[in-house]
Amino acid sequence: MASTTNSKQPQVNGELPCFKKFMMENKNKVTVVLGAQWGDEGKGKVVDLLAVNSDIVCRCQGGNNAGHTVVVDGKEFDFHLLPSGIINTKCISVIGNGVVIHIPGLFEELKKNELKGMQGWQDRLIVSDRAHIVFDLHQQADGLQEAEKGKNSLGTTKKGIGPTYSSKATRNGVRIGDLLGDFSVFEEKFRTLAAGYKRMFPALEVDIESELARYREYADRIRPLVKDTVAYLHREIKLGKKVLVEGANAAMLDIDFGTYPYVTSSNCSIGGVCTGLGLPPNVIGDVIGVVKAYTTRVGDGPFPTELHDETGKLLQERGHEVGVTTRRVRRCGWLDLVVVKYTAMVDYITLPGWDCKIEDVRQMENLPEQARQYVKTIEDFLQIPVKYIGVGQGRESIIRAE
Description:
By secondary structure, the protein is of the alpha/beta class.
């Protein structure tokens, strides 16, 4: 990342202005991991790898429409709302203000992974009081909206993410902090929200009294986990803690920069990190883009290199390409470097493949020549170095190319 120095930079009492001083004190403290295709690139594995050397790992946007898989000692952990780094017992995990949270789904996810061996999360998980709540009525509305669109449906996960962000934008959403405050205020907001959705979707069914009783219980369960995460992160960064941010979805699903309207409802490119955690851009250091050696996408939308033949089926089978959240078979195709570079306009490149197992390879020089050439072509085209190469599902199945 380039930087410039202005010799005419004004000073106050012989010191740099506060924002400049803050930037210098906190330079390169935050590392960000983002998907660079349509999701499912393996961000969870990268986050799990980097969490070993991190103090805090955060989710900044999206909801339980995301699916991240981490395989540890043969056990497969699936995360939807939780940061993938929560497996690391030395890490604090933060669900930031930009995330939308289905509270029943969060506790179900915690229970499932606890049964698989995840321990101590009660002391390591922090939830933002500013995060918006995904209610079951949002999920119903998601499905009803998709049904109304018919053949023009977007292929959403029907997890209520879009309707919840819509509620947030129209300022009738309900936040975690509302749930933990005066319950009568929460009740009023929920009744108003439900009435609005009933007007939009007469077929929508909401047992308001039952929902309110349920959320009284959830308020007590989630209360110990909730903090002002903005203040918390600023304080910890100032103390020198290493922060890792895990983006959900991927850049081509970003609501502003993706293949609109076949996108998600949040900014899953770098901008979502700042707004979703309350961090200024100048504390962000390395930004790591995760790319599959081929391309996949779940749901509808354009896919220029999609394969509808036996090769596409082979990629799906060998790559275990089934959506973690939806269990839908992922669409598969060749690596699309035009998508990865985004603004480039060139012809596609055909490269020789290799027909041997590489799951046990741990050194770059031990890869087949065709595989090394494949990586070099990607680096040359993008002018970005490849730092890590995943060759299998397990935590240990990583080649460090740096």
